[in-house]
Amino acid sequence: MVDALQSLLASSRGRSSLFGAIQYASLLSAGLSEALLQGTTTLSRSLRNLYRALSDCRTLLRFGDSVSLLLKPGAYRNSSPKDLIWIIDTISDLANRFYYPFEHIAWAIDKRVIPFGESSAKWWNRSSYFSLISSICALAKTVLSWIDIIKRKGELPSSDRRQLRKEEFLVTVDFFTNVARLIVSVHYLPDGMLWGTKLSSTSLGLLGMISSLVSLWKMIDEF
User: Model pTM?
Assistant: First the structure.
């Protein structure tokens, strides 16, 4: 267990998921605190400050990921189209290549790191659109995996289906996790688009925390 935690913290993806769980847990706690105490308190303000600080921290951590992603050859460069999974992977790869840089430009404008004359809102919106595309691709890929498992189960005798149970469980977990991520992605869209900006702090914090904790659990299980 200790070795798994060390490996988790040694990876940028692991640190980002850990900070994400704490980030959304602080937002959830702030929302619950304000609901129970019927107003903003010193505690809720501190929790929201922690949420924003960890958000900045994760954005900086993703900077390294964005550079490596831009330098990494895409699936569409190394393969030929074979099936729907390849198409989804290609769209997701392209979406991520735009999502990260736009996010960093928006963040840098907010922090006055780069002297752009325009508002950062446009860049945040562009980043949100590509994040939504990536979330849709992840959910679609999970649904296809689910369908594949159901087909394989139908082709196997009852005595041999046990080996698919763990795989089916993991895909089911992925499905609900990706649904949560999709809901969160839509929340970050501009106001007026679906439920953009409409989620409460409690709902956003709960969904984000669950998504991050599941990611952590899966990474620990891999080590």
Answer: 0.86
